[in-house]
From TrEMBL:
Keyword Nucleotide-binding included in the entry's annotation: yes
Protein name per the record: Ribosome biogenesis GTPase YlqF
Organism whose genome encodes this protein: Vreelandella sulfidaeris
MF terms (GO), sorted A to Z: GTP binding; GTPase activity
GO biological process, one term: translation
PANTHER family noted in UniProt: MITOCHONDRIAL RIBOSOME-ASSOCIATED GTPASE 1
Length: 92
């Protein structure tokens, strides 16, 4: 087992634990191209008793079939309520 844990991650975990009693719902933004890999397992563990809204960003760059598979897999387990964000509006 590694004895290394970055200080900023430990600080973030401590801060989340402190404010968690005041939070009604957790909003987690995931990259739609790789939602499993962009999720933070520490956050999932800390918030396991809270409702979670998972927002999929960059959905315009993701494979629509894979995204649909992920949503279909996640929804029956009630692990998330996915939202797909539209692509950003270009600034001219």
């Amino acid at each position: 087992m590694l004895g290394w844990f970055p200080g900023h991650m430990n600080k973030a975990r401590r801060q989340i634990k402190e404010v968690l009693p005041e939070i009604d719902v957790v909003i987690e933004v995931l990259d739609a191209r790789l939602p499993y890999s962009s999720a933070n397992p520490m956050l999932a563990e800390l918030t396991r008793h809270k409702p979670v809204l998972k927002i999929l960003s960059r959905a315009d760059l993701a494979d629509p079939e894979r995204t649909a598979e992920w949503v279909a897999f996640s929804m029956p387990k009630r692990t998330c309520a996915p939202w797909l964000l539209p692509p950003p509006i270009p600034v001219s």
